[in-house]
Design goal:
lipid metabolism, five-stranded antiparallel beta sheet, ten-stranded mixed beta sheet, elongated
């Protein structure tokens, strides 16, 4: 049972919880308008606090809910303050005139801390001096019984509401509240948003939990009505994640399943179970790096995207196709105005950070008198000799005389200048005759970097399973 109250005499939020047969546990939260100086707090020594670390035996016996609110700002990026403690020194860092990001983790079956805490905190603070409140409910999320953790989500949301209420009374605005939730934490964020009638600034759901939430009504899970802008990354829809749309925009990396670089069999150990689910977090972190831009493509489904049917983002002009992650809110005005305000976006990733893929269209006009069906493999070489390869992974292409075929090619390296192109045609058959593909025009059109020149090659023949090398030239007419 969870109870919480505001004590106006001590400026504290007092929360207590208890389970049948166990003594009650009490937590005290202090909140400030952010006007305190270092000299204002003298009754508690400076101390750094860390995420609760538990062991497997805690998961076996179960844990009562105990929420720790760890505050990071640029002033204390390496030394979290604890907003729970009576006479906490952390209060001097909390400035409600700044944007506040609540980061809430999910189910923790072994009790270990998330490996990504430090990285996400430091990279967010490198962008702006936020109040970052890491919601540590490891005591509660740590259990072998997933449904026990899921049952505590509303209690966590109630605790967060109490803190947000006090921040609002001290001058914060709902616009300045950003909830970032992982797995069960995504639904906790949604529950908080509902308490403010969807008026908080933003919620980002990182692979929202599917088990026990799939099929539930919006009142019990994350929904696009929970904030002014809700964006969601789905990376494990066939496992621990939620399959259907939940936000104003829902991103599906690699179709939402089987993330590159993750183990494909149980021989990969624990990574086999959690790697796909965690990938959403690392994709979000990658968006903070700004070393490359992860473009996504609004589309009906993943198959249509892979067939190259969804690269036209003119409806977002003057913006490009929506970006994944932290900067997705740049597209907010376009997305929330849609009817209904729901958009699915698909994209592929590389197997390692920063995960970026660079897209090209490969356009063929052929002049064989008979229709040819087959696959194209293309490699690009840069001026300094680096090579990157893309096997166009759609269904077999159908090459009909004088009809243009557009194929979507994806590379994990970006070359400002392409010096050579290597192309192979195959039917995929291991027996029977070898075919030729007579090409009238081949165009290589950059999608990720559309300002780069369109490259062409004219009038050549591809022999099946024989790689052809040539130097591309600027197209004579890009409208061919």
């Amino acid at each position: 049972m969870l109870m919480h109250r505001w004590d106006p005499l001590t400026a504290e939020i007092i929360c207590s919880s208890s389970a049948l047969g166990t003594p009650p546990q009490t937590q005290v939260f202090k909140v400030s308008s952010g006007s305190h100086s270092r000299n204002d707090v003298t009754d508690t020594d400076e101390k750094c606090y860390v995420f609760t670390s538990l062991k497997l035996h805690h998961a076996i016996v179960g844990t009562n809910l105990n929420v720790q609110l760890l505050l990071y700002t640029r002033e204390n990026a390496d030394c979290a303050g604890n907003l729970n403690l009576e006479n906490s020194t952390a209060v001097k860092y909390l400035n409600v005139s700044r944007k506040t990001i609540f980061i809430t983790h999910g189910y923790r079956p072994t009790g270990s801390p998330p490996v990504w805490i430090s990285e996400i905190v430091h990279k967010l603070l490198s962008i702006q001096d936020f109040n970052i409140i890491f919601v540590d409910w490891n005591r509660g999320a740590t259990t072998l019984l997933y449904h026990h953790a899921a049952a505590k989500t509303r209690d966590v949301a109630n605790i967060l509401k109490t803190l947000v209420d006090k921040m609002l009374s001290d001058g914060a605005t709902l616009d300045s509240i950003y909830m970032l939730g992982v797995s069960l934490g995504a639904h906790i964020s949604g529950l908080v948003g509902k308490m403010y009638n969807g008026q908080i600034g933003r919620i980002t759901g990182l692979d929202p939990a599917g088990p026990l939430f799939t099929g539930k009504p919006p009142e019990e899970r994350l929904h696009y009505g929970d904030a002014q802008f809700v964006d969601v990354i789905h990376s494990d829809i066939d496992g621990l994640g939620y399959r259907e749309s939940l936000g104003h925009i829902d991103f599906y990396p690699n179709g939402g399943t089987d993330q590159p670089g993750c183990p494909e069999t149980i021989l990969g150990g624990s990574e086999y179970f959690k790697c796909d689910h965690q990938r959403s977090v690392f994709l979000y972190i990658s968006s903070l790096n700004q070393t490359c831009q992860i473009d996504t493509f609004p589309c009906a489904d993943y198959r249509e995207y892979r067939m190259g049917k969804c690269t036209d983002c003119s409806s977002f002009s003057p913006l490009s196709c929506p970006m994944l992650g932290f900067y997705a809110d740049k597209w907010k005005d376009y997305l929330v105005a849609r009817n209904p305000p729901v958009t699915k976006a698909f994209f592929d990733t590389a197997p390692e950070s920063p995960f970026c893929i660079y897209h090209y269209y490969l356009d063929f006009v052929t002049w064989n008198s008979q229709t040819r069906r087959g696959y194209i493999t293309i490699k690009l070489e840069s001026t300094d000799g680096q090579v990157t390869e893309s096997k166009l992974d759609q269904d077999p292409a159908v090459f009909e005389q004088y009809n243009e075929v557009s194929l979507l090619a994806k590379f994990d390296k970006d070359f400002a200048t392409v010096s050579k192109v290597f192309v192979t045609f195959t039917t995929g058959s291991v027996i029977g005759p070898k075919y030729k593909l007579r090409v009238l025009t081949m165009k290589l059109r950059p999608i990720t970097n559309r300002s780069r020149p369109v490259l062409c090659r004219y009038d050549f023949v591809l022999l099946e399973n024989i790689e052809m090398e040539f130097r591309p030239i600027p197209c004579q007419n890009t409208n061919l």
